[in-house]
C-alpha cells in the first residue's frame, strides 16, 4: 500500500483526487456522496461576482423590472439571485457541509473585476471554508484592454482577497496568457497559494439557420489533459504555489500524469458526472495499484518526476520537440 497523501493549500489530503466545482457539490447530500465516493476534498460551485454585486447594491427589484421590460436581460442574468444557492444559501452550504463531512471544503468565487464582492471571501472563511478557489473567468473583449491590463487585474484580485482572509487561496486560471510561466510566478508572489490549470472555456456555437448563439456544455475528454500537463511541467519548481490540474482528468493514468508533471492534485468533474461519485474510489484504487506495481512508495516521491525542472533550456527543448512532432507525421 503506497502513501497516497498529498499536501495542497497547506491541507493534507488522503489522495490527489479532488472534485472540482460543479453541481455535484451543490448540496450537503451531494457532498456526502462525493466523500463516500472517495474524493479527498471538494470544491463548491462558484458564487459569481455579478450575484454578489447585485446583492450588495440591492438591485434585485431593478433587475426584475429590467428583465420584464427587456427580455434579453434574462439571457444575461439567468436566475442570478438563486444561482448556486445565492449568497446566503451558499454560506449555509459551507456551514452544513463542514458539519457533515470530514474532507476539506473549498469555496469558490468567480469574477474578474475589482469590487465589493471580493469581501465575500471573508464570509466564506467565517462560515468555515478550508480554502477559497478564485476562478478568474475573464474574456478580454475590449480592444483597448491589453495583455498587461489583464494580468494586472488578476494580480489585483488576488492581493485584495488575501487582504480579507487567512485561509489559503487557489487561483483557477485561463490557458490564454501569452506568458503563463510569468503570470504564474507573479500570482504566487501576490499571495496565491495554489494555481489550478486550466479553466475550460465553453464556446457557444452558431445556429446558422436560426442565426442564434447556441450555448453548449460538452463534458471534457482526456485529450484535453496534455495542455495542462505541459504547463504544470513547465511551472513546477518555478512558482511558489502548489499546482493542480483541472480539465481532462478521467482515469488513474491521468492522475499519475498530473502528479508526474508536478501537480499536487488532480481535479475531476466530467468523469464523476459521467460515471457517478464512486468513480473516484475506482481511480484511487487503480492509482494505488499503479504506484505499487511501479515501486513508488508515495505520491510525493512521484511528484514532478516528469517536469521540466531538469531541462536546462526549456524554450529550446520546446522548439526541438515541436520540430520532432511535425517530423513524426508519416504520409
Ligand atoms: C455542469 C458544470 C458546472 C460547472 N460549474 C463550475 C463552477 O461553478 N465554477 C468553476 O470554477 N468551475 C465550474 N465547472 C468547471 C469544472 O470545475 C472543471 O474545471 C471542468 O469541468 C474541467 O474539468 P473536467 O475535465 O474534470 O470536467 C463546471 C463544470 C461543469 C461540467
Q: What does it look like?
A:
With 331 residues, the protein is an alpha/beta fold. It has a single domain, classed as TIM Barrel (Alpha-Beta Barrel). It has helices spanning 28-37, 49-57, 60-69, 72-76, 86-100, 120-127, 147-164, 180-189, 225-235, 252-261, 270-275, 279-293, 299-302, 314-327, and strands spanning 6-8, 11-13, 17-19, 42-48, 105-110, 131-135, 169-173, 194-197, 205-207, 212-214, 242-245, 265-268. The N and C termini lie far apart (46 Å). It binds flavin mononucleotide. Flavin mononucleotide (FMN) is lined by residues 20-23, 45-46, 108, 110, 135, 172, 200, 217, 219-220, 246-249, 268-271.
**Extended strand count:** 12
Largest sheet, spatial ordering of strands: 3-12-11-8-7-6-5-4
Our Rg estimate from Cα atoms comes to 20 Å
Provide the number of structural domains. 1
Summed over residues and divided by their number, the pLDDT gives a mean of 91
Main sheet overview: 8 strands, parallel
CATH class: Alpha Beta
CATH third-tier fold name:
TIM Barrel
- In the CATH hierarchy, the architecture is Alpha-Beta Barrel
What structural class should be given to the helix and strand makeup? alpha/beta
Question: Strand share of the residues?
Answer: 15-25%
